[in-house]
Structures are given as C-alpha cells and as structure tokens.
Amino acid sequence: MCARPPHPDGVTLVRETQVEHLPALVHLGWVVAFPWLAQGTTTRRSDAADFDLGLFSGGSDAGTVRANWAELASETGFEEVVHARQVHGCEVHVLEGESAPRSPSSPRLLDPADGHVTDRPGVLLAVTTADCVPVFVVDERRRAVGAIHAGWRGAAAGILERALDAMRSGFGSVPDDVHVHLGPAICGSCYEVGPEVFEALGLDTPPGPTPIDLRAVLARRAAGAGVWPSRITVSTHCTRCGTSGLYSHRGGDAQRQVGYIGIRT
User: Fold this and answer.
1) Could you give the angle at the alpha carbon of 185 between the alpha carbons of 50 and 250, nearest 5°?
2) I want to staple 117 with a disulfide (CB 3.0 to 4.6 A). Which of 7, 146, 212, 231 is the partner?
3) Are the beta carbons of 114 and 91 closer than 8 angstroms?
4) Is residue 1 part of a domain?
5) What is the number of domains present in the chain?
6) Which residue from 154, 134, 152 is spatially nearest to 233, judged by alpha carbons?
7) Half-sphere exposure of 216 (CA within 13 A, CB side)
8) 172: domain range?
C-alpha cells in the first residue's frame, strides 16, 4: 500500500475473515471483544455469484437486490435495517428512541446521508460501498455504534468527525471509549487521484496524479479527533486488486457491497 500519509503509530492492520452463514467479512477481534455486536462487510457469494445490495446503482434487477437485503436482515437477526441514498457529504442520522416494526424485506430509507449512529438494539445500520471506505464506530461503554460511507469528498467534508460528534451529542460518547475500524476499500496502490484531492484533504499537493491511501487519511483523522490509535484498526482487503469477492467501481462493477453494524437485542 501507498503510505502517504502513513497510519498513526499504534494503529493495527487486520484481515477480516469470511463467515459461513452469510457472504461477508467480519472483524474477528470485534467478534471476541463485543459479543453483543453484529458487524461486517458483504461480498460476492462463495461460488463468485453476485450478492448485490446496490439499491441505486443499477447493477442488478430490483427484485434480486430486495431479496439480498432480506437475506442480510435474516442472517444477521435484525428486524429493522436502516439505509439512505449516499451523496458523498457529511450528513449523519442519529437514531434514538423507539420505532415501529418494519418489514426486513427492504431497508428503511432515510433522507440522503452518508452516516448513521444509534444506541438502539435491534437496528442494523447499513452503508453501501464499491471502493469507498466503510467506517465502523463502537462505543463499548455506552453500547452505541455508527456506520459511515467515506469517499474522499466525505472525508474532506469531515464525515468521520461529524459522526463522532453525533455520538457525543446523542449518547454521551467520548473518544476514550470509542473504537474505529476502517473496512474493506480500495488500497493506496490502486487509488490514484489528482492533486485536487490532496488539496481538499489538507495534504501536500503533488504535481500530478498520485496514489493515496484514504484509509490512512481517515485513521489520522480519527486519531486527531481523540480516538486512541490502539483502538483504530484498518482492513488489509482491497476492493480493486484483492481476491475477496468485493465490488470495485474503478474495476467496472455496478454492484455494491454493504458495510453493516448493529446492536443485538
């Protein structure tokens, strides 16, 4: 991977593991540390068949996509799944209180946003990606969680910091209690961008197109917001050059995987 900028000292690289009951990669360290948590990133099926969850990308017919969402809800054990059309911005939904029971055959669609946080058991937060970074946040003390879709525009707009602020104002979360995982995404070797991206992210601007490691950028932003580097983990899976069954927009895929997180009832 490109190391520009490098990960903060203390950050741990992890390789999520495929689970059997669902085509998804899970953070085994979090499985052990947080048994009350459901978290993962979906992939293609083991036979390389599609498991497309892109409601707005046009990669598969609508009926197939809805069936895949129903399977995600069923296999994770959640009756309510929350999603939104993503706009590469920094809006974050805070889900509090009770909600009416909903059919898990399709997600509950909120107003356009790129992040969701909640402390409510039984709600699965979902963001779709296909090169962008799915960011997962856990407050172990207050049992609050967040799911964020972070492309370079969202990162530059402060989507990660906005989500941490939303958890603080909504649930009393403080950085000392927060864990952040930067999930499967395009790696720094595969992700070449123009100087304007470096400028937008507040980095030294190269003279021309240059690879950038967006997960390293986000790791430094998380540490800058007060999260202990020892509580920041970064996936080693790449959507573009890896063999993990992940979809890549730059690789020509119209399909989408989902990064999901929720508090079990």
Assistant:
1) 70
2) 146
3) yes
4) no
5) 1
6) 134
7) 18
8) 12-263
Widest Cα–Cα separation across the chain:
54
- Tell me whether residue 6 is in a domain: no
Give pLDDT tens digits along the chain (265 positions).
Answer: 333 467 888 999 999 999 989 999 999 999 999 999 999 999 999 999 999 999 999 999 999 999 999 999 999 999 899 999 999 999 999 998 666 555 556 899 999 999 999 999 999 999 999 999 999 999 999 999 999 999 999 999 999 999 999 999 999 999 999 999 999 999 999 999 999 999 999 999 999 999 999 999 999 999 999 999 999 999 999 999 989 999 999 999 999 999 999 999 9
Written as one string, the DSSP assignment of 125-155 is EEEEESSSEEEEEEETTTTEEEEEEE-HHHH
CATH code for position 241 = 3.60.140.10
Query: Cα–Cα–Cα angle for 86, 206, 224, nearest 5°?
Result: 55
